Amino acid sequence: MTQATASVFKIPTESPQLARGAVSRARRPAGKPRPTRLAASRVAGVETRAATRGDGEVIELDLGITVYPPRDEGGRWRAVWHEDGERQQCESVSADKLAAKLEKVRQRLATGASNMTRPGTDLIAWYLNPDRLPVAGRWSRKHADTQRRLCERFAAPVIGTVTCQDITVSHAQKIVNAAPTASEGGRVHRMLSSMVSAGLKGGYLVNPVLAEVHWQAGDRPLPAPAVGVAGESSLWVDPSEVPSHDDVAILGKALSARQHGEREELMATLAAYTGLRWGELAALTIGQVAPAARVITVDRKVVEVGGRLYVEAPKNRKYRRTVYPRRTPAAYPLAERLAARIEEARAEQRAGTNPLGLLFPSRSGGHWCSSNFNRRILQPAYRAAGWRDSSGAGRWTWHSLRHVFWKLEPTDVSRMAGHANYRITLDMYVGTTAGVLDRARAATE
Question: Could you report the per-residue pLDDT of 15-46, keeping only the tens digit for each?
C-alpha cells in the first residue's frame, strides 16, 4: 500500500485577483473612489504606504503585520507576517473578518508564544518532557509516572485535539470535573496548575486563569468535613493514632509466625525505631549498616513504577544517617538481631543466593515488589495482629511504624527521618496546638 503524499501549503507569490488593465479601469465610474480606500479604514492600521508592485496601497500594522487590501471591488483582503522565523499569511473576504483572524495572530506575536498553534497533545508532551526541567529539579520516577497517568486519563481526552490557543476555562473545568472524587480532583487540579505554568513558560499558553478552577461535585456526594483543632497542622499525627510499642511487637510476631523466620519481624522493628521507609528497607544492604556504631546510612531506595523496580536516591535526593537502639521498649534485642542478620546475609551472598547482599531480600534473592510484599506478607500479618478486620479496614499501615520514635529533639528526628525541613517534623509529631483540649478542660473544671 502506497502512502498518500502530504499536501504542502505554499504562499502565493502572485495576486489571485484579475489583472488590472485598461478594461477594468474603464469600467470604474468616473469620480467614484476606489473601494480599497474606503475598506482600508475599517482595519486598525498604523500607517499606509505605497505597494511595491502596482499602484495601490498597503496597511502596515504593528508587530510586523502587513495588510494588502483587495485591488478590485469584491476582492479578498490578505495579511502577511513573520512568525517563528517563517513567513505566514491569511486572507478573508472582508476587513472585519480579517481583523478577527488577526486578533489571535497579534496575541501570539505580542507574547512570543509561537507554540500556541500546536495541538493540546504537544502541550501535554512538553509538560511531561523531563528536559524542560533542570537536572537537579527533575521529577522522581514515581511522580513522573503519576503525572503521565493523570494526563492520559483526564487531560488528553479533553484538550488532546484542541489547538492550544483555543483552550478555554471550560476545557480546564471539564478536566478537573472528570475526577470521580474530591481528593482525586485535587490531584488533577495540581497537575493542571503545573501544566499551565509549564505552558506559559514554553509558549503554548498565555492565559494563567486556566489554572483557577476547582473540582465541582455536581450530583456526586461530598466528602465528610475534616474535624480538627483550630490552628493544628493537618500533618499532625495524634498519639492515639500511632501504634504503641506493644502493637509493633504484636505485628512483628505475626510476621515472624507467617514466614517461619525473623526477617520480617526484624524489618518491622527496624522501621519503627529508625524511621526508614519501606523502599529504603527493601534496598538496605550489608554495606549500609555499621554494627559497631549502630548507624545506618540511607543512600538508596526501591520504587515500583508500572510494574518495574528501580533503585534510586532516597526521597528529596538527600543522603542521611540514622541510629538504631540496642533494645526496643518491648525488650527486643535489636542490635544483636541485626548483627546476626548481617552475618547471614554475608553467607547468602557468598553462596550466591543473595548476590546484592540485601538484608531483606525476596524469596528469589532480589528486591521485593511493594505490591507483592503487601499481598503475600503484610495483609495476612495485619489480620493476625488485629491491625485489619475481615473487610480489610484498619487504622494503621506500614508507614504508621515511622511515627514510633524515641523522645528526641525534633531537629534530630527530622534528620534521621529524612524530612525536607524541620517544620514537617514539628507539624507531624508535635503539633502546633498539641494538648490544647486538655488544657481547656482543666481550665473549665
Answer: 444 444 444 444 444 444 444 443 444 444 44
Distance of CA 197 to the CA centre of its chain: 12
Choose between 350 and 436: higher pLDDT: 350
Q: Do residues 247 and 383 both lie within one domain?
A: yes
Q: Note whether 282 and 341 are same-domain residues.
A: yes
394 shares a domain with 304: yes
Considering the entire predicted model, what is its pTM? Answer: 0.69
Strand partners, 320: 298
Residue 119 phi, psi dihedral angles, 5° rounding: -75, 170
What single-letter amino acid sits at 221?
P
The parent domain of residue 350 ranges over: 242-403
User: Looking at the structure, do residues 276 and 385 belong to the same domain, yes or no?
Assistant: yes
Helix segments in 151-225, DSSP class H: 156-159, 169-177, 182-202
Whole-angstrom CA distances from 104 to 37, 90, 101, 108 are 25, 12, 6, 6
Please, is 97 exposed, middle or buried when counting C-beta atoms within 10 Å of its C-beta (0-12, 13-18, 19+)? middle
DSSP 83-117: ETTEEEEEEESSHHHHHHHHHHHHHHHHHT-GGGG
